[in-house]
Each structure stands twice: as C-alpha cells, then as structure tokens.
Amino acid sequence: MKYMILIYGNRESWSAMDADSFRKLMSAHEALRAELEASGEFVDTNELPIDGAKIVRNKGGVAEVTDGPFVEVKEIVAGYYIVECPSMDRATEIAGKLSEAEFGLVEVRRMTSQPDH
Name one Pfam family in it (predicted). Predict the structure, then answer.
C-alpha cells in the first residue's frame, strides 16, 4: 500500500532556523531517504517551495488565479514523501522520524489505488 506523508511548516519556524539547524534537518532527510531506499519502501520525495505558488478557483467557468498560499494560512505544505509499506502503522512510524514532526505538522494519508486502463 502506498502512503503520502505530507510535511507542513510555517514561515516562523523556517525563518527562526539557523544554518546549522538547517544542515541537520537536511542530513536527517538524506538519512531517512537512504533508509527507505535500502528497505525498498521509498517511492518519491520532494520539497514544495511556496515561492511562485498559485491558487486557482473556477468562478462561473472562468479560472481565477491569485498568488498563494495566503499569509493568513498558518501551516503550509512544504514537502512530501511517498512510501510503499505494509500498513498505516509503518507509515506513521516513518513520519515520526521526520524532524518537522518536532516543530510542525506531519500528516499521513493512504493513497487510493487506481485501476489499470
């Protein structure tokens, strides 16, 4: 079963992080990726930068595009992992290894299977 691990952050947490803390965070991500690759559970991961993001709404059949995410949004999706593992328990165990779980929010969702066409 595939699971998506969504990593949330906020501007305050990131701006308060010094260079050494950021290096440690990135090293922890590299170590987790290596662990998941070795176990065969790794599928994908990526950072999702907020700069340049757009919000799209359909208003009466017309796409309305604005810059986003909005400042009033406290938590922003900052990145993700997709893992393939046997259970939600294992996926949450993996999510708990993320440093962001200490100062932010990490969400785990089961991905639905798509039928072959």
Answer: YCII
Over its length of 117 residues, how does the chain's per-residue pLDDT go in tens digits? 999 999 998 777 777 889 999 899 999 999 999 999 999 999 999 998 877 888 899 999 999 998 877 655 678 888 999 999 999 999 999 999 998 888 889 999 999 976 555
Cα–Cα distance measured from residue 95 to residue 50, given in angstroms and rounded to the nearest whole number:
21
Could you give all domains of the chain from N- to C-terminal order, each with its CATH number? 2-110 (3.30.70.1060)
Q: What is the DSSP letter of 20?
A: H
Residues with Cβ < 8 Å from 61, sequence gap 6 or more? none
